[in-house]
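job 3f2a | input accepted
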Amino acid sequence: MGNRKIVKVGILTLPLKGNYGGVLQAYALLTFLKKKGYNAFLVDRQWDIRKKKTISYWIQKFFFHHFLIKNVKRFSDRWIVPRTNKIDSQSEMINLNKDNFDAFIVGSDQVWRVEHTGGVKNNFFLDFVEDPNVKRISYAPSFGKDSVDVKEKERKTISKLLKKFTAISVRESSGIDICKNQFDVDAIQVVDPTLLLSAKEYLPIIESKINRSQTKVLTTYVLDNSFEKNEKIQEIANVLGLKVKSINYKKNPSLLLKKPSLDIYNYVYPSVSNWLRGFQEADFVVTDSFHGTLFSIIFRKQFIVIGNEKRGMARFQSILSMLELEDRLITSSDKSYIDLLDKPIDYSKTEKILSKEIAKSSDFLLNALE
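job 3f2a | predicted structure (370 res):
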């Protein structure tokens, strides 16, 4: 690109739907770049509406729109700006080439978990970028697990696209091996975008709340509930003398309809502000969520992570290993978790490691842009 100054940057990530971690990592990366003086935009890519949709899809769409997305939309409209218009086709993505972007950044979250992202073709490998002078950068994309199962033709296509990138980073250490062994490109590991901002920088999102209860709480954010997890949570709460407070969905009797079988109508999800407050005000956290883990760390909370095998363990193992907190990760069948309650996290040690990783990640991104 020579001496051409990078000014306008497009960020491409998963659609801003109902995933708290997903919207907050998008907010964090956009905020970080704006802080550094870039004219950064979020490319508001939606799943391709021309793809045939099932009845199940429309039921889910209705549910998420009415009971979760409206809370996230309120957050996105205020905090994740500027954004492009909604884009739902490949032709509209190609039209971005007319908008004078100097660079595109793909990431973070599981944008490279190819079995889940077929609705956007290879947009997450920046297949739509035509100008060779436009920088192509990946910042902390995740493959979601420690392997990728793609057919040979698709593997070659992805490899060819990745070789056009200016700089490649991944979120998990396993992603480095995947890039090298499956796509023949080099990558480095960087931290999730949410870690690029300090706890203080999230406080403006958390709306003020008067008269906080003096009751000490065990905050839980559990994506895949089970009897075993609930049993562990209650035992931990009893040992610590804390009241359990979930920041996932809750039933709201005022929303009951005539048809009790339509149980989805009875759920209410917290706003992004209240979700963050759940971590800020927690005295202890139990979660099976990757971003639940990260916000426990951001707000310097004592926590335990119940490994979410269904959604991929590599994400948890990678960040906790990096911060020397592997012992905070347990499984649903683990029996020794109570011992962790007598081994508090030494955040002075964690802070030193995290500071170095954040500096390395920040340098990677800024050097790639300049």
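job 3f2a | DSSP finds eleven helices and 13 strands in the chain.
job 3f2a | closed
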